[in-house]
Design goal:
Strand 2 and strand 3 form a beta hairpin. The chain has five helices and three strands, in the order H-E-H-H-E-E-H-H. Strands 1-2-3 form a three-stranded mixed beta sheet. It has 110 residues and is of the alpha+beta class.
């Protein structure tokens, strides 16, 4: 008679797709946020994988650099961690990085 648990036990017909993106720029390192963002994103990634949500992990640099796609790859946390040095810096691309990332992530999720 506890309907909430019955409802959750039924298979869900929705397919969720999530992109987790981490800024790999020098500003993340300067402000001491790089390692915190990376650790938090990996915790979130593990949780989403347990829920069987299709998840993409990417680095934001001049655009999107795809590092992990749960529909194709197995999770190798060490190799993902090595990809982030938080040293990307190109003053000319600062204004275009996010816009380019959004366009590329939409294409990747289709």
């Amino acid at each position: 008679k506890d309907r909430i648990w019955l409802r959750r036990a039924e298979p869900n017909e929705r397919n969720y797709r999530v992109t987790i993106a981490i800024d790999n720029s020098t500003s993340m390192q300067i402000h001491g946020l790089g390692s915190k963002a990376l650790r938090s994103s990996l915790v979130l990634l593990h949780a989403l994988l347990r829920l069987k949500v299709i998840t993409i992990l990417a680095s934001i640099e001049q655009g999107m650099r795809l590092l992990f796609d749960s529909s194709k790859d197995s999770l190798d946390q060490a190799s993902i961690t090595r990809e982030f040095d938080f040293g990307y810096g190109d003053s000319r691309s600062m204004n275009f990085s996010l816009a380019r990332f959004m366009k590329e992530s939409i294409v990747c999720m289709e």
